[in-house]
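Chapter summary example.
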Amino acid sequence: MSFLRSLCPRRHKLRRNDETEKKMLTLLTNKLHQEKRYYTISRNNRNLKDRPMEKKKTDMLVVTPHPDDAEFGVAGTAAKWTRQGKIVVYVVCTNGDKGTEDYNIKPEQLAKIREKEQLAATELLGVKEVVFLRHPDQSLEDTPEFRKEIVRLIRTYKPEIVVTSAPYRRYIWHRDHRIVGQVTLDAVFPYSRDVWAYPELLDEGLEPHKVREVWLWASDDVNFRSDITETFDLKLKALQCHKSQIKEPFASEMEKWLCERAKDMAEGEKFKLAEGFHRAEIWW
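The structure predicted for these 284 residues follows.
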């Protein structure tokens, strides 16, 4: 399978000889950890920025439970949109530090690995900004504090569309996926819209924002199919970047499985390959 044999592009690195930038990066990272602020990668200027309050206008905000989930759910569509010049931003809610069967790797090591893998994947897809909330894996709860984090990001990036994991998938479903989906839906409506929801955000200069649509991947009730015929190869390569997760024997069958899934999702459409979502328009 060619996509499994191919190498991922080099991950985002600082300029090798720029000692000043390295020192600034270290100081900033320490500051973010101390203040529990967002850790944001921006490829517009190839540097870390502590700027969660900066107002933006984003076409698509992807809120994903773990590193690699969005690649399964929406990567083909994200790549298509960035090719069209649209702005896509990722929000990764957990650090994925429990996603292993290897007793020899510590959670803190795995979290660093998975963050680098996510950056490699998003660079392939043309995603310019990735926000890591760095919650521990399997720890998410539907709390006002977590909801406020997502509301803050929605008001910051002002997306037309928010994409996230379907919270209502029946029976077996990762708890973090359910929680992220539900919290994101609530954050979109009504909390991001309403003036007096989290009024302290007004003091930060974050005005209410009305999201136009929500797309849910892995839904049991698909009503919208996105054509990814031209970007399916990028979806596969982005998934391949998650080397800590995509291993044998699953890796050998993944291309075939994903291709069949994308073909089935496009059945009856005018295109060959698709990602499926439950799409909800917000009119009020």
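To summarize the output: Residues 25-281 form a domain with the Rossmann fold fold (CATH 3.40.50.10320).
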